[in-house]
Amino acid sequence: MTVCDARPLFATPDRFPSAAEVVVDWPHRYLQREADTGKLDSRTVVCVLTHDPKFDVPVLYRALRLPQLAYVGAMGSRQTHFNRLERLREAGLTDTELSRLSSPVGLDLGGRTPEETAVSIAAEIIAARSGSSGARLRDLDQPIHSSGR
Q1: Contact assessment for residue 38 and residue 31, using Cβ atoms and an 8 Å cutoff
Q2: For a disulfide at 74, which of 42, 48, 54, 78, Cβ 3.0-4.6 Å?
């Protein structure tokens, strides 16, 4: 996992000890550089957790225009999501591009803590990457492990 933030006060290894890499740069510039060097593929996930349009809009604009990404999500309330969609439309994204955005990010697990929120987001990413619904297994009438996974 890579954490990227333009603010050196927030992007420190001490704050993110489990991160493989902590990058101090504008997220959209970092994402573009990674795309230009061929480091992004169908396993790449982008999650935006800032709630700040000056960070969110440029990186989401870039991410939603990279079709190879497995998942693009953004945290925020429903109102934040609607406001963000309007800004992204004003920036020139199409409805098709915007349909790739998972926002508010995560599954409805009823979590309250940061750790529970992280599980909710990770669960949605796994479901999205595998093409699964994220529904409860007990409510499904199909094999638990399909041959395609």
Answers
A1: no
A2: 48
Give CB contacts under 8 A, 24+ apart, made by 60-67.
Answer: 60/84, 60/88, 60/101, 61/28, 61/88, 61/91, 61/92, 61/93, 62/28, 62/31, 62/32, 62/35, 63/31, 64/88, 64/93, 64/97, 64/98, 64/100, 64/101, 65/93, 65/97, 66/31, 66/35, 66/40
Residues with Cβ within 8 Å of residue 143, at least 6 apart in sequence: none
How far, in Å, CA of 19 to CA of 63, rounded? 20
Phi first, then psi, for residue 45 (nearest 5°) are -120, 135
Q: Residue 11: what residue type?
A: A
Query: What rounded mean pLDDT belongs to the chain?
Result: 92
Distance separating alpha carbons of residues 31 and 9, to the nearest angstrom: 20
Distance CA 62, CA 5 (A): 15
Q: Convert the pLDDT of each residue in 94-104 to its tens digit.
A: 999 999 999 99
Calpha distance 114→109 (Å, rounded)? 13
> What's the pLDDT tens digit per position in 114-138?
999 999 999 999 999 888 888 888 8
